[in-house]
Amino acid sequence: MGSMCHIKKDPKTWMQWPTSYQTRPDLGGEELVRVRYGTWDDDPGGAFDLEMLMRSGVYDKLLSKVYTVAPDSDQKRGLRVLDETGRLVEPLAEDTIY
Q1: H helices then E strands: how many in the chain?
Q2: CA 50 vs CA 29, 53, 59, 92, 95: distances in Å
Q3: pLDDT for 61-97, tens place per residue?
Q4: pLDDT at 2 over 70
């Protein structure tokens, strides 16, 4: 059947947990939170949650709608964050830390 990716576009619906992790000092030493932002259904393997670490500043901007989730995130099969001008915010590590 194939696989299906569903990414929740409203960050207020995401589950979020604090962590004890921070980015390296040369990357700002920013606190990281763990977010659950969607699901991946890989038939017949079953569904699993999509989670990643996110800089608290990026998460806060998503919650305040300064940043948005790109509408094509499902088709690109990964979380894509856009800034207030519509440009892609680059993750620190693809599929691991935003």
Answers
A1: 2, 6
A2: 24, 11, 16, 17, 9
A3: 999 999 999 999 988 888 999 999 999 999 988 777 9
A4: no
| Alpha-carbon distances of 9 from 21, 24, 37, 73, 80, rounded to whole Å | 25, 28, 8, 9, 10
Question: 64 phi and psi, to 5 degrees?
Answer: -90, 5
**49 pLDDT exceeds 80?**
yes
Strand partners, 7: 38
Tokens of 25: 């000092």
Cα–Cα distance, 49 to 56 (Å, whole number): 20
CA end-to-end distance (rounded Å), the chain = 30
Q: What is the CA radius of gyration of the chain?
A: 14
Rounded to whole angstroms, how far apart are CA atoms 32 and 55?
Answer: 5
